[in-house]
Amino acid sequence: MGLPPLPCCVAAPPPDLLPPFPGVSDEGLAFLRDLRVHNDREWFKPRKATYDDELLAPLRMLVADLSRRLPEAGLPLSADPRKGVFRIYRDTRFRKDKTPYKTHIAASLGRNGDKKAPGVLYVHIEPGGSLVGGGFWQPESALLRRWRERMVAEPQAFLDMVEAVRASGLRFQATGTNLLKRMPRGFESFADSPVAEFLKWKAGFVAFRDDVPDAAVRSPAFTDLTVETAEALRPLLEYGWRIVDGH
């Protein structure tokens, strides 16, 4: 059965008119590599200008670029360039690892400019470990239940979405920490369903392009790659947004 069209979504106000994304410089990537070795305030503070100029500023430009281009492509994903970028400072209050800084930079663009709204595009830049992807990570329990109910009611529609995402070259799979050992409560009778394995996913549904080389993030064309990835995510995002909207 075909899915109904999504209602028209109004994009967030256009971002600040920042210059186009120039790519992350060699100096910026070297900064992140060095930060892995020197993850302390004494090393970081005198070099903060390098972080600001070579990493933070380009990432904000990327967010601005994407916030202009994605709504034009019919994907209501955007962010304020100042707020869409995650802080480099780690929250160490409840962690054994007290190193103060993340060794990557990242940004998130959400539906109509709200990065906390379900269904996001996520960009992660890290030497040797960059990725682009998104979806519905750690949805609220009520949304996860509605998602499971939709899956068992219309299993083929869900499987068609999964096939479309994977056919675009994205990795759509659960990690060990994202899997229940048993069927979730209330869904025990669906152990033989075609979607049984997906019912055990507990941290949400996300897909990634995780083979992004350093050369890609150094290039202005990384914007194009990110837009292409968002298009590949479209079946997953629109499937989830219909559930969020009650369609």
Short description:
The protein is built from eight helices and five strands, in the order αααββββαααβαα. By secondary structure, it is of the alpha+beta class. The protein is globular, with a radius of gyration of 19 Å.
Helix content: 40-55%
Q: First CA to last CA: what distance?
A: 14 Å
Beta-strand content bin: 5-15%
Shape: globular
Largest sheet: 5 strands, antiparallel
Contiguous uncertain segments of 5+ residues? none
- Elements, N to C (H/E): HHHEEEEHHHEHH
Count of extended strands? 5
Tell me the strand order in the biggest sheet. 1-2-3-4-5
Radius of gyration: 19 Å
- Mean pLDDT equals 93
Find the structural class using helix and strand composition. alpha+beta
Number of helices: 8
Features:
5-stranded antiparallel beta sheet; 5 strands; alpha+beta; 247 residues
Would you kindly provide a written description of the structure presented here, covering whatever features stand out?
40% of the residues lie in helices and 13% in strands. With 247 residues, the chain is an alpha+beta fold. Strands 1-2-3-4-5 form a five-stranded antiparallel β-sheet. Strand 3 (120-125) and strand 4 form a beta hairpin. The longest helix is centred in the N-terminal third of the chain and has 25 residues, at 48-72.
Set down the secondary structure blueprint:
Blueprint (H helix, E strand, L loop, with lengths): L25 H12 L3 H4 L3 H25 L4 E2 L26 E7 L8 E6 L4 E8 L3 H13 L1 H13 L28 H4 L4 E9 L1 H4 L4 H24 L2
Antiparallel strand pairs: 1-2, 2-3, 3-4, 4-5
